[in-house]
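hey can u run this one w/ magnesium ion bound, need the structure tokens asap thx
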Amino acid sequence: MDDRNMETSSSTFTEVSSDHSKSIIHIDVDCFYAQVEMVRKPELRSLPLGIQQKNIVVTSNYEARKFGIRKCMLVSDALKICPNLKLVSGEDLHDYRAASNKIFTLLQSWKCPVEKLGMDENFIDVTNLVQEKLKTLNVTSITLSGHVFSEPSSECLCGCHTRLKVASQIANEMRHKIYDELGFTTCAGIAHNKLLAKLVCPFKKPNDQTTVFPEHGATFMTTFQSVRSIPSIGSKTAEALISQKIITVSDLQEVSLDVLKKHFSGDMAVRLKSLSAGEDNTPVKQSGRPQSIGLEDSFKTVSVKSEVEEKFGALLQRLLILVREDGRIPVSLRVTLRKKDVKRLSSHRESRQCQVSPSIFTINSGTLTVTEAGQQKLMSMIMRLFNKLIDLSKPFHLTLVGLAFTKFQERMTGRSSIVNYLMNDISVQSVLNIQNDCDTSASSMDYSAASPSSSTTTDLSDGEVEPSPKKPKKVNWIAKRRCLSKEEVASPSKLKVGELRLNSKELEKVSELRLSSRDRSLTPRASPAKDNLSDTSDTMKDVADGANCDDCPSYVDKEVFSALPDEMQQELKAMWKNPSSSEVPRSSPRNLNKAKPNTLLKYFVPHK
Ligand code: TTP
Ligand code: MG
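ok here u go:
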């Protein structure tokens, strides 16, 4: 600790640590995969049970843990210490994902923000719910449910003790409901921030809960022997800290901010100090659908290209099933490798990603599918990325390959968006033209914890920086005319892009019918375009007239125009009437390639 000025943990962070206003619960399912199997087959409950992926026991029930079975143990080692260990394959993640989703859905019934973290963990911000409950509770009678890391020495003036006690009651309620409705026992951590709630959660495992009060945050943190125990410290940061002889969380508390700043950015140094003191102001972000869907396969070593290709092929097959279940259209693909590197203390991953043309995917009867040819295209993209990551002129040794779709096309936007008309039931080949082979990411390192075997990574973090898909370079429009029946026109969802194909000449012309983002609202009442009309009554008349296109410009195909939904017709008419109502400058055919962000053009691509 030569290069370090000693500093007390509280000296720099008193301001942050005085904010105890939040009440956060972290819930983790006990021996998750094993419980899913035991719920499915109750006879497994009384047996020591291990969940096997390849030659590894990824988890085991608590009966097996009595024998010393630990997560990620080799099957051979596990059987040595527990010959009666019942092994169940955990390679198919379907039921685990389904159980995970059920728990997440159940937790949402408390109407608080729920952030899903991996398969079996959730953060719930119950701050508002606690406040609501406090209105009806007798404060003096509120007791803490479960355990406490350490009894508070004196009452905190901000009232956080009472709030956290109420939160502990809510956590208890949640855990009981999960058990009663889904059959899973869980652990919970309760604290005024996510960091402490997560770290205190396993304090009394299994099937119990623990609260840590703010005054004990820093002390609680000193119980962790490795800086790596802090969730946001990955292996790279840990390595950098260890190289400065900062090994335990206490070491991190003691090192001065100035010393840290020599090795990390200012923000990072401050963040590290805060974390070491048990401070964390990151919000619980309501989870939506995962930002990426991925799979990884780890193995002892693979050094031959054809074997790598085989591994990727198998991963791709499984990944396509996940993507089909998700339903969104991927537009970006990431390949990850873990190279065996004896020189480094820890293994490291490298990734590359490229954009994927949505035309690879089609939607048949609402189901996302990929043809054989599409799969081959994906495989060649994968191998191209692989070639960029590996210098094939030299020997290589891999211990993991991973595949993930990291960006998805949003199929729906705002209620009044023109996109809705085009995107409902859309046949994907009609959307953006995104280059297949454009590698957009520099080689990047991924320091998230490696899973011992195939695993699903549903990345929910904001931290992942991904390049946005490039805007279409070329936008040609497609010719096909068809007049829809009245019912079809009446139902925008039935108006598929495939039925709106125009010929390229027409499209060049129609492209001049700019729809600025401001003008996306299609109802005459809400449309700024309409607001600029000199004669509002005409517009209203047009609505009544339906597909009347007498005043359409000559180049507009009336058949095609009549197939558009009424609201879209109104908007187009409004713009023909008053071109200046649109903020977008009149585009020449040359400008077709530069479709404005919210023009119709954006939603069409060359016919393949
Ligand atoms: P954990 O919550 O780490 O473990 P667990 O729920 O099995 O046990 P605990 O009672 O200690 O919480 O992980 C959740 C699931 O993720 C686990 O059941 C199996 C899977 N898993 C892997 O696939 N690979 C891994 O390396 C680990 C640690 C878990
Ligand atoms: Mg768990």
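Residues 160-182 form the longest helix (23 residues). anyway lmk if its weird
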